[in-house]
Please model this.
Amino acid sequence: MQALAEEDDRFGYDRHATNRALSIANGVTVIILGFALGSFLQALPERNTADVQEVVKGLDRLIGLMTKELVELPHIQQHPESFIVEIVGILIGYTLLKHAHEDSREYDAAFNRIEQFYTVSQRRRGWIRCGVLVVLGTVVILVTHGLLLAYGHGMGDGIAAGIAQTSIATGVWCYVYGGLYATRTDLFLYNFRALRQVNVYELGKSESDARREMRLGEKRLCDLSSSLTNFTVAIGVLGALGLYFLPTFRSPYFWLPLVVMIGIALCMRWFVIRYARRRYEPDFD
Model:
């Protein structure tokens, strides 16, 4: 972790942002590893016992409570043990992500604006680390899939899929952590995101008219960005669930719609933030 002088780390921001990057990366990775472990278990004989079915029903009730009965899991599974592991992985990853989200909301509400305190060299080091992690993650994914294509013909489908998904989990961890670690030094991005927790009627009430109009404009763009992101990701989640649970459309690439929609959401968010920076705070650094 990049060392910052105690007097320069405003409100413990660097520690908070680094922990947030770790929590989000770990949460996403745990979900993918759950599916990888489920794939490995498919290589074992199926044991569809009464006890296993009770566990499946219990998970269904739990998810029903968590989602207010919006999601209902199918009780009959081709390989229920793999299904159980996958659902447990989703629940653990979801818990990590939810905790990171709640912690970010609390921090953003407490400190909704932080002026830039990172030096140019500190920001550069963050992006260098990001680049190294992206290269490392890409190498792991490509090398693993290359080896599977060359030497994996004798493996069972479950083993090969598990190895491939494990490599993807490793790569995704590198991408997510590296990206969030680097962008933590962009305090305009943090301030823009933190505006979600600010009451619009209290925003800038003790500041000049020009300053208040600037903050209100940023707040409107922040709300727009948040709405677009939530809508786009929701479509991706529905698509992934459809490809996973619907027998007609079931595919091992069920995660692809979610990845595509997250990519689209990130692009739209980038354009909105870029516009906000240029329009309202072009000199923020």
